[in-house]
Amino acid sequence: MKRLAIFASGTGSNAKRLIDYFSGNQYISVALLISNRKEAGALEIARKANIPAISFLKEEFYNSSTVIEKLISEKIDFIVLAGFLIKVPDNILKAYENKIVNIHPALLPNFGGKGMYGLNVHKAVIESKKKESGITIHLVNEHYDEGKVLFQAACPVLENDTPEMLATQVQELEHKYFPVVIEDFILTTAAD
Predict the structure, then answer these.
(1) I need a labelling partner for 15 at 20 to 30 A (CA). Which of 5, 23, 114, 177 fits?
(2) Predicted confidence (pLDDT) at residue 192 exceeds the cutoff of 80
(3) Are residues 108 and 165 in the same domain?
(4) Number of domains composing the chain
(5) CA of 51: how far to CAs of 33, 80, 85, 155, in Å?
(6) CA-wise closest residue to 177 among 147, 134, 130
(7) Which element (helix H / strand E) includes 52?
(8) Nearest to 56 by CA among 33, 72, 76, 73
């Protein structure tokens, strides 16, 4: 059984989708949820599913070994970033090299990098007059949104789309593909 930790900063719609998807899975379980915001809705979603959920201050995340020690003590095999809005520190990147997966709400390499999340991304896509957007699921490295791409899916950007309307389309893609791609990646990686 591979143990998964979800890192989330917000309301937790992707975290909930992952928790629901892997509930009862015989190969993968969500074993921990970590947030950098004590008021994140994702924490409550995890707790309702009887999954340990903890939050840390940003300073703790970067200047102590508390988080990495928790990951090790919980025997975490893989990490999934589900709307996690701060950069993963080097100690975790090194300990989980090629085992941290992120989802980005655009087709990378376009519209990635620091500050490109949520409605910021969708607004930039619309302002650029792109005809499509979508999702990118990728491995995490030391640079924002530059890790190896595992999967992309596209959706059209319609002439009258607002950032909120585009966000809804993109979120549908996230919920459809994120759990499946993670499962495939973990099972393939574990088999190697």
Answers:
(1) 114
(2) no
(3) yes
(4) 2
(5) 7, 15, 21, 33
(6) 134
(7) none
(8) 33
Residue whose C-alpha is closest to residue 179's, from 80, 50, 44? 80
How far apart, in whole angstroms, are the C-alpha atoms of residue 52 and residue 62? 21
pTM of the model as a whole: 0.96
pLDDT digits (tens, 9 = 90+) for 55-80: 999 888 999 999 999 999 999 999 99
**Residue 25 domain boundaries:** 1-97
Strands 53-55 and 149-156 turn out to be: unpaired
Residue 48 tokens read as 């309702």
Q: Which residues pair with 8 in a beta bridge?
A: none
Q: Which residues are catalytic?
A: 104
Within the chain, strands assigned E span 2-7, 28-35, 53-55, 78-81, 100-104, 132-139, 149-156
Residue 124 pLDDT exceeds 80: yes
Report the residue count for the chain.
192
Cβ count within 10 A of residue 101? 24
Read off the pLDDT band of 22 (50, 70, 90).
very high
Enter the tokens of residue 70: 């928790």
AA letter at 129: K
Tell me the C-alpha distance between 114 and 87, whole Å: 9
Q: What's the angle, vertex CA 101, arms to CA 130 and CA 132, rounded to 5?
A: 10
Q: How far is CA 172 from the centre of its chain?
A: 15
